[in-house]
């Protein structure tokens, strides 16, 4: 602080008309007006509260094994990709800022995986749960049991633990008008994203408590041998499967007070990995089988 | 968690079966690559069977994060989980108080226990599922032949050759027969070296390491040996060594292997092994 500003501030002294009171250090007693939750006087981010067994298993054993299993040796450098002409002339000022894909499409299905390296060994990024509740279109309060259930399953809240990217349980709304039963903005489902410690906890409860106790579950269905390897799902690096409503009651978080949930919902589980390209979903399946998720043929 | 002894449920491999019925012990043709002998080495890994013991820093860190999350989380919705007047609620409240006292370093209150709080969770359940001790007998006696030793670490199999003088300890090695792929050779030779009572799984078909050693004698038709290492996991079983080839075996961590094998061998194999 320079001396000029100091003298300035001393000449414009603010005189408080309120009586001076000594305040005790109320670190966690001040509460947010909106949420009424205690707000600490500094930005606090809550990280892992315990060691995750499956995360350690991945780093100890799975990561090395998956690198060896999925390695594809490239003895020569990759040839230059075919230069396909773009839809619009990039020099044309009328079409300059348009989305300019190659003629014939983005060819997402033909894109190869990046060269194998220790940095891009397949790993689990996040797990997403999604539940479609068609009755919610008629009455929004039909979403509440699903929201409660997803909150119990995931433990995620909006901005929970100071993590601003965590969105918690979100309502899925219609994007476009289809078939007269959906309009843009109409709530019709629930989804939640889990990352980090909560993701590993969910995965371990799924594998240890739910899947073994499910009747008539032999495994996640593998795609048919004749299935094309260039479909959007095959190059996505995402493995998805669904659980029936009865499976929801097998999760310990819900089993402890099943009566509090008025309705059980079936839902989809999406395991999202870092692989993208031809053969990405196969690698994702190899990763998940390392966590003891069974796969079965039709 | 004690190591499971598997009864040999895996079928005996074709090559050895055929050999049982051969009139003469005609050895199958060994593969070579022109001027070099071809061999495979097996890095047989016993993966960790116990979760890691947290260090004092990790314990303090996790306790701190637990305190933060308890202080900043929503209040516990009692009405959602307990019906009014449920005895389980009182037990839960007591347990929660104990947990919070421990976390926040508070002195536990010395009030007389309320006689109405009935222990709802039965004692039999706790007795039925008593966990095994983390330190096995093998840890007490430092038995390096045991698969139960050092449950948190990755262990690797080393075998001792009777002939070699200074550096007898090495990973199991074997010849590759004609018409055999690397992973098939690995599976076959592990059952030959370690006996039929061992369950193993070869990690893929790709080798994880490679060494080339020049031939020592001048009379040999080969100028060197190419050795390809493959990774295997041992899942269950007990070793029964073939005494013609190897005399002793040990299951060692990476750091113990450094102290056991020769310096050149260590430089060749160190990068294939897990540090922890």
Automatic annotation (TrEMBL), chain A:
Tell me a GO biological process for this protein: translation
According to the UniProt record, one GO cellular component term is:
ribosome
Where composition is biased (Basic residues), the residues are: 21-34
**Ranges of Basic and acidic residues composition bias in the record:** 74-83
Region Disordered: what ranges? 1-35, 74-114
The Large ribosomal subunit protein uL5 C-terminal domain extends over 187-295
User: What Pfam family does this protein match (any one)?
Assistant: Ribosomal_L5_C
Per UniProt, the keywords (alphabetical) are: Ribonucleoprotein, Ribosomal protein
Q: Where is the composition biased (Low complexity)?
A: 1-11
Give the protein family.
Belongs to the universal ribosomal protein uL5 family.
Protein name stated in the entry = Ribosomal protein L5
Q: What is the lineage of its organism?
A: Eukaryota, Fungi, Dikarya, Basidiomycota, Agaricomycotina
From TrEMBL, chain B:
State the Pfam families in the record.
Answer: MRP-L46
Q: State the Gene3D superfamilies in the record.
A: Nucleoside Triphosphate Pyrophosphohydrolase
Q: Name the predominant localization.
A: mitochondrion
Q: Which GO terms describe its cellular component?
A: mitochondrial large ribosomal subunit
Q: Do you know which SUPFAM superfamilies this protein is assigned to? A: Nudix
Domain Large ribosomal subunit protein mL46 N-terminal, first and last residues per copy: 37-139
**Can you say where in the cell this protein is located?**
Mitochondrion
Keywords (A to Z) from UniProt: Mitochondrion, Ribonucleoprotein, Ribosomal protein, Transit peptide
Gene Ontology molecular-function annotations: structural constituent of ribosome
Question: Which family is it part of?
Answer: Belongs to the mitochondrion-specific ribosomal protein mL46 family.
Protein name, UniProt field:
Large ribosomal subunit protein mL46
